[in-house]
Design brief:
- With about 120 residues, the chain is mainly α.
- The chain has one domain.
- About 60% of the residues lie in helices and about 0% in strands.
- The protein contains 4 helices and no strands.
- The protein has helices spanning about 10-25, 30-40, 65-80, 85-110.
- It is extended.
Length: about 120
């Protein structure tokens, strides 16, 4: 059975660890997040496969997740005959990031006064 866990960096203290690298190069924050998750789950049961998937705001994936999704897409394409299977795997993450950014933007704006 697959188990999914999503972590969103939202507090200033957590974000500060990522800012310096992210300011230099795209993808650095995803690799830092991946390293933290790998350390957290280092003792996971050997019967399980752990693959962290980290995505930056502009949909930059961590390297290992990119390889995983591409390989999975190729294998699905070989069976289905649909060459775009890998793209279909990346699209939900892109939509998720866009929706989350929308929520953050809305929450940061002052509420409209509609009591006229």
């Amino acid at each position: 059975m697959a188990e999914w866990q999503v972590n969103v960096l939202g507090c200033h203290c957590a974000l500060s660890a990522y800012v310096n690298g992210a300011a230099i190069e795209a993808g650095v924050a995803t690799e830092v997040a991946t390293s933290h998750k790998e350390a957290k789950y280092a003792d996971i049961d050997s019967r399980c496969v752990f693959e962290p998937i980290a995505v930056e705001t502009l949909c930059v994936f961590n390297f290992s997740a990119h390889l995983l999704l591409n390989e999975l897409g190729k294998r699905i394409s070989a069976i289905s005959g649909e060459a775009r299977e890998a793209s279909f795997l990346f699209q939900p993450a892109s939509v998720f990031v866009q929706r989350f950014n929308d929520v953050l933007l809305r929450d940061s704006l002052p509420a409209a006064d509609c009591t006229d």
